[in-house]
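Suppose you are handed only two things: the residues of a chain and a line of SMILES describing zinc ion. What would the bound structure be? This form records exactly that question and the answer produced for it, so the two can be stored side by side and reused later without any lookup.

QUESTION INPUTS
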Amino acid sequence: MTDDEYEVLAIRYATWPKRFRWQNFHRGDPHDDAPMPLDFYVWAIRNGKRTIVVDTGYDKAEAATRNQPISHEPRAALAMAGIDCATVEDVVITHLHFDHAGSTGHFPKARFHLQEREMVFATGPCMCHDGMSSAYTADHVCAMVKNVFERRVQFHDGAEELAPGVSVHLVGGHTGGIQCVRVKTKRGWVVLASDVSHYYENFETGRAFPLYHDMDLTYRGYATLRKLASSTRHIIPGHDPLVMARYPAPAPHLDGIAARLDLDPAP
Ligand SMILES: [Zn+2]
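ANSWER OUTPUT
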């Protein structure tokens, strides 16, 4: 592996099993009521030179507050994969929703990479409306504001390279400033879509997940994912259980917890 190629891990820390297909698509048909669980992930990008974590997930306290249990705290799952959150220096926050930015305190040494527009969105007038604010937790947003004052936030505006072979890309749509992450691997350019596409089916069929700030940008985001990735098989949706089914575990003890996204998926 060269210095600009990486191992990429999806790490699953929670599953919401009681969800149905109609809940996962804009204008879903209530008769479309087959189960369609929602999984929760953080991601890790690493090689011999550096480790970058993408999103922090949410912790036990947030799980109790929202009554949405987790199977592991993300820091524990990352530790199982050999990543010590206490020493991680770079964390990309794709957006500030509770399930993506709910454990920033577990990364005491990290610099957080965030799009400017996401901070504006999460602290501005859109948060006066339940439909926009309900997936944010005020304490998480305030923690990120505190990080700004501690000079621990690296703001981005658009597309920027974080390290050779790793870049972030502003998309918007789902939230005001959601970004995706592009990573060079041995099999080509992998794109961590996060909630730019919750499921494979969202971008594959052009049917949006029903939580969005801007529908037009949501659809444009699907095109951006395709443009950035080496193929559709290189796009990793943010919440799809199929990710764990398609990609191999890095080691037997991580079966069902982590998957290697830099390796080819099952056909
Ligand atoms: Zn989200």
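WHAT STANDS OUT: Helices lie at 60-66, 74-80, 116-122, 130-133, 138-149, 200-205, 215-228, 242-246. The two ends are 24 Å apart (CA to CA).
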